[in-house]
Design goal:
The complex is a heterodimer of chains A (about 180) and B (about 650). With about 180 residues, chain A is an alpha/beta fold. Helix content of chain A is about 40%, strand content about 20%. Chain A is elongated and about 80 Å long. The chains are: A alpha/beta (about 180), B alpha+beta (about 650).
C-alpha cells in the first residue's frame, strides 16, 4: 500500500513543476501596452539640452524613423541601458532622440560627458509635461516612431540587445523592404 | 550614511539568523546545552538588527533621501508625511523588509513565551523560525536590497503609486502580513514537534493561541484590503478573486480548518497528524502567495515588478522549506498514534467534515488561481478564471459547511447522540427559516433561489450558536472565554453569510450619463448631479463632482466624488464618495467627461455591504477573546502535569 503520509510531498513536487514552468513562461516585462501604439506620436516642441538656442520638435522629425528614448541622469536603469544606446548610435540604423525627463541641465550634461552621448538630439523636458503626453510610466522608456509620425512600438524599461534584435530591427527592416 | 548602516544591519541580521537556525536545530540534536543557550540571544540580536534596518529606511523616506534608489522610485518631496512612511511597504523591496520585521516580532514573542515550554522544544521552534528568517533575509540582500544608492542622486522622487496614496496602505499590508507571517509560528511548532518525534495534547495547547492570533490578523488584513478596493479602485466591488486575493484567502481557509482540527487534538488527542499537516500547509500557502505575487508568473492588480531571478529564488526557498517540512511529515507522522475512536455523530465527525470542506474550498481556490499558469504551460491558450468559476465552486463546499455548523456545535465529544438537543435544533431551524424568508420576501420582496437559503443558514448559525451560552448562563454555570470567543466568531461568520447574501441579491447598480442639473432615480433614491469643479491637492489636481441624494424629497446626503490626476506619475485615480443610509451603502463614482458638459456617473446601492468587513472584525474579536482564556495562561509546571485520559473538559 502506498504510504498516505507521502501524498502531500508528492502533490507538492507536482506543484513545483507547474511553478517552475510558470517562471520559464512568465509574461514579458512589457505587459503594460501603450495606448499610443498605432496612433500619432504626441506633438512636442522643447528646448535642446545641448544648445539652448535651438528647439527640438516633433514636426521637424517627420519623414524619418526615430527612436525616442526617455531618460534622466537620476535614473539608475538608464545608466545600465547606456552602453546599448551607444551601440544603437554606432549602428546608424535609426536616430536616437533623447527626452531628458525632469532633469537638472548641468547634471544631465555631466552624465553625457562622462558616459558619452548616444543621442542625435535631446529635448529637455524640465517640467515633465511632454512625458505626461507620451504616457511615460517610468524611465527609461523608448518609443519607435515611423516617418508618418505613428508610434509603432514601445519598450518599457531597459532597451536590451534582445529587444533590439527581436522587436526593433525587424520593424525597421520590414519598412525598408516595403519602400525599396 | 544611514542607508549603509541599514544595509550593514541587514547583513548582521542574516548572520544572526543563521546562528539562530543552527543552534536552535543542532543544539537539541547533539544535546549541546551551550548551543541551546545561545538561541535566545541570537533571536534578540537579529530583532535589533532588523529594527535598525527598518529605522534607517524610514529615516531615508522621511528625510527625502533620493540618493536611495528605492526612495527615489516610491516617494516624492510633495508626498504627505504619513505616505512617506507608508511608502516603505509600497513596493517589493520595502514590503519584504516589513515581512522580515514582523517575523522578527513574532519570533521575539515566541522567545518570551518559551519559558513555559520545554527547553529543547523551544530551541527547535526558534531554530525553524531562524531558517525562515535566514531565507527571507538572504532573498532581500541577494535580489531585492532596498538600500541601493543612485549616483548621482535623483533630484526628486518618482512618487508613490497614486492608488497607494490612501490610509488603506498604512494599515492593510502590515495587518495582512502579520497574519501571513504569524502562520510561521504554527509551522515552526509543527516542525519542532516532528523533529522531536513527539506530539501530544500539550503541544496542541501551546500552539492554539498562536494559530488563532495569526488567523485573526489575516482575516482583518483581508477585510481591510477588500474595503480599500471597494472605495479606492472606484469599481464598487469588494472581492474580485484576483490571484493575490486568492493567495491571501487560501491560508485563511486552511487556518480556519487548523483552528478546528487543533481543538480536537487539544481536547481528545485525535487528528494529530492531520493537525501537523494543516500547520505546515497554512504557512506553505502563505509562502506560495508570496511566490505568486513577487515572481511575476501571474498578472494581477497587485503585481510587483516582475523579475525572474526573484521567482527562481523564492521557488528554491519553497522547495527547501515546504518540501523539507512535508518530507519530515512523511517520515514522522506515521509514528503518531491516536488513542481512541469516535462515533459517526460525535463532534469529532463534524469537525472532520469541517476540515474536509475547508480544505476542498482552499483546493478549488488554488486550482482556479493556478489554472492560467497550467494552461499557459501546456500551451492551451490563455484562460481567465473569474467569478463564474469561483463563486459556484466555492459555494459547493461552503453551503454544506454552514449547514453542518449549526448541528455540529450541539454534538457531544466522542459519542454521537444529539438527544435532547435535537428539538432545540429543530426549533432554531424553523425560527431561522421563518425569519430568513421573512427578511427576503418581506423587506426586499424578491430574490433568487439561494437568497432565502443564505439568509436562513446565517440566522440559524446565530441562533444555534447562542443556545449553549444562554443555557449555561441560565443554569448559573461559568462561561469560559473560549466558548464566548467561539460563539462570537461563529456569529461573525453568520454576519458575513447574511451580508454576502443580501449584497449579491439586492445590489442596485447603474452607470448614467448626467448633465448638470439633471436627476436619476436608483433603488428608491433620487440623485441630482450638480456638475463638476476643478480641485487641487498637495500633489494632484483634478475635478470634483457634486451629487445630491434625496429620498421622497427628504435630503439624504451630498456626495462629492473626485477624479484625481497625480502630477508625478500622471495617473488618474477615482475617489468614490460613499454614504451609509438605512443599512445601505450608497456609492457614487465619477467616470469620464462625455463632452457637452455631460459626465458618466456610476451609482451603486449595496445593502449591508459594510457588514462583510464588520464580520471579519467580529471573527477576529472572537479569536482574541478565545486566546485570552485561562487555559492558555497556565504556567509551565501546570502544563507538564500529565493529564488523565478521557477527562476532556466540557467546552471547546
Amino acid at each position: 500500500m502506498i504510504n498516505r503520509f507521502l501524498i502531500p510531498v508528492v502533490v507538492f513536487a507536482l506543484l513545483t513543476v507547474v511553478l517552475a514552468i510558470g517562471i520559464v513562461h512568465s509574461p514579458d516585462k512589457g505587459i503594460i501596452p501603450s495606448p499610443l501604439i498605432g496612433k500619432p506620436a504626441p506633438p512636442f516642441s522643447l528646448p535642446s539640452l545641448t544648445d539652448a538656442t535651438r528647439t527640438v520638435s516633433s514636426g521637424a522629425l517627420r519623414g524619418r524613423w526615430y527612436l525616442l528614448n526617455v531618460w534622466g541622469s537620476w535614473c539608475g536603469t538608464c545608466r545600465e541601458e547606456h552602453g546599448m544606446l551607444l551601440q544603437v548610435r554606432q549602428s546608424g540604423l535609426v536616430p536616437l532622440i533623447g527626452l531628458d525627463w525632469k532633469d537638472d541641465d548641468a547634471q544631465a550634461l555631466g552624465y553625457l560627458q562622462q558616459g558619452g552621448n548616444p543621442y542625435q538630439e535631446i529635448a529637455a523636458d524640465r517640467t515633465g509635461r511632454v512625458a505626461i503626453d507620451w504616457g511615460v510610466y517610468a524611465a527609461p522608456e523608448s518609443f519607435l516612431v515611423n516617418p508618418e509620425g505613428i508610434v509603432v512600438y514601445k519598450c518599457m524599461g531597459e532597451l536590451t540587445p534582445e529587444i533590439w534584435q527581436k522587436e526593433i530591427l525587424p520593424r525597421l527592416a520590414k519598412a525598408q523592404a516595403s519602400t525599396s | 550614511m544611514l542607508p549603509e548602516l541599514g544595509h550593514f544591519a541587514l547583513i548582521l541580521a542574516l548572520l544572526l539568523a543563521a546562528l539562530q537556525a543552527f543552534f536552535g536545530i543542532a543544539g537539541p540534536m547533539f544535546r549541546r546545552e551551550r548551543w541551546v543557550a545561545a538561541v535566545t540571544p541570537a533571536v534578540a540580536g537579529q530583532a535589533v538588527m532588523v529594527a535598525t534596518a527598518m529605522g534607517c529606511l524610514i529615516a531615508s523616506f522621511v528625510g527625502d533621501d533620493f540618493s536611495v534608489a528605492y526612495v527615489a522610485e516610491n516617494s516624492n518631496s510633495a508626498l504627505p508625511l504619513i505616505y512617506r512612511v507608508a511608502a516603505l511597504w509600497g513596493a517589493h523591496e520595502g514590503s519584504l523588509l516589513l515581512w522580515i520585521m514582523l517575523l522578527a516580532v513574532w519570533t521575539v514573542a515566541v522567545a518570551v513565551y518559551a519559558n513555559r515550554l520545554p527547553r529543547l522544544f523551544a530551541a527547535r521552534v526558534l531554530g525553524v523560525l531562524g531558517v525562515i528568517s535566514f531565507g527571507f533575509l538572504l532573498f532581500t540582500l541577494a535580489t531585492s536590497n532596498p538600500f541601493l544608492r543612485l549616483d548621482p542622486p535623483a533630484l526628486d522622487g518618482r512618487d508613490l503609486n497614486p492608488i497607494l496614496q490612501d490610509p488603506g496602505l498604512a494599515g492593510h499590508p502590515p495587518v495582512l502580513y502579520t497574519g501571513y507571517v504569524g502562520f510561521a509560528v504554527a509551522f515552526a511548532f509543527a516542525c519542532g514537534a516532528m523533529l522531536e518525534g513527539r506530539m501530544d495534547q500539550n503541544w496542541a495547547r501551546w500552539t492554539r493561541p498562536w494559530v488563532t492570533a495569526a488567523w485573526a490578523f489575516l482575516g482583518c488584513g483581508i477585510a481591510m484590503g477588500s474595503f480599500w478596493a471597494y472605495y479606492e479602485l472606484g469599481w464598487g466591488g469588494f472581492w474580485f478573486w484576483d490571484p493575490v486575493e486568492c493567495a491571501s484567502f487560501m491560508p485563511w481557509l486552511v487556518g480556519t480548518a487548523l483552528i478546528h482540527s487543533i481543538a480536537v487534538t487539544d481536547k481528545r488527542g485525535l487528528f494529530k497528524s492531520w493537525t501537523l499537516l494543516l500547520s505546515v500547509l497554512a504557512f506553505s500557502l502563505s509562502l506560495l502567495g508570496t511566490f505568486l505575487v513577487r515572481s511575476g508568473v501571474l498578472v494581477s492588480v497587485h503585481s510587483f515588478a516582475a523579475d525572474p531571478s526573484r521567482g527562481v529564488f523564492i521557488l528554491s526557498f519553497l522547495i527547501v522549506m515546504i518540501g523539507g517540512a512535508l518530507s519530515l511529515y512523511a517520515w514522522r507522522a506515521p509514528l503518531l498514534k491516536s488513542p481512541a475512536g469516535f462515533d459517526l455523530g460525535a463532534r469529532e465527525s463534524f469537525l472532520l467534515f469541517n476540515n474536509v470542506l475547508l480544505v476542498i474550498a482552499a483546493a478549488t481556490v488554488l486550482a482556479g488561481t493556478l489554472a492560467p499558469l497550467i494552461s499557459g504551460a501546456l500551451k492551451l491558450g490563455t484562460v481567465s478564471v473569474g467569478p463564474q468559476f469561483f463563486n459556484p465552486t466555492f459555494m459547493l463546499s461552503m453551503l454544506p459547511l454552514l449547514a453542518l455548523l449549526s448541528v455540529g456545535i450541539h454534538a457531544g465529544w466522542k459519542r454521537g447522540r444529539l438527544g435532547t438537543q435535537l428539538r432545540t435544533l429543530l426549533y432554531t431551524f424553523i425560527a431561522a427559516a421563518v425569519f430568513g424568508c421573512g427578511l427576503v420576501y418581506g423587506i426586499y420582496s424578491h430574490g433568487h433561489l439561494l437568497t432565502p437559503v443564505g439568509a436562513t443558514l446565517g440566522i440559524w448559525i446565530i441562533l444555534s450558536s447562542l443556545v449553549d451560552p444562554v443555557d449555561r448562563l441560565r443554569r448559573g454555570l461559568s462561561l469560559p472565554r473560549a466558548v464566548v470567543g467561539m460563539t462570537i466568531a461563529h456569529i461573525g461568520l453568520a454576519t458575513a453569510v447574511i451580508a454576502l447574501t443580501t449584497v449579491q441579491s439586492f445590489t442596485n447598480e447603474k452607470d448614467l450619463s448626467l448633465a448638470p442639473g439633471t436627476s436619476a432615480a436608483v433603488g428608491g433614491y433620487q440623485f441630482r448631479f450638480d456638475g463638476v469643479r476643478p480641485i487641487e491637492g498637495p500633489n494632484y489636481d483634478g475635478v470634483g463632482g457634486t451629487v445630491v441624494v434625496t429620498r421622497n424629497g427628504a435630503p439624504i446626503a451630498v456626495l462629492k466624488p473626485q477624479k484625481r490626476q497625480y502630477w508625478v506619475q500622471h495617473q488618474v485615480t477615482t475617489e468614490t464618495a460613499i454614504h451609509y443610509s438605512r443599512g445601505n451603502n450608497i456609492l457614487v463614482a465619477l467616470g469620464d467627461d462625455l463632452g457637452a458638459n455631460r459626465w458618466s456617473v456610476r451609482i451603486q446601492i449595496r445593502p449591508l455591504v459594510s457588514f462583510i468587513w464588520l464580520a471579519a472584525v467580529i471573527m477576529a474579536l472572537g479569536g482574541a477573546i478565545a486566546i485570552s482564556d485561562r487555559r492558555y495562561r497556565l504556567t509551565k509546571v501546570a502544563v507538564e502535569i500529565p493529564r488523565a485520559a478521557g477527562t476532556a473538559p466540557e467546552h471547546a
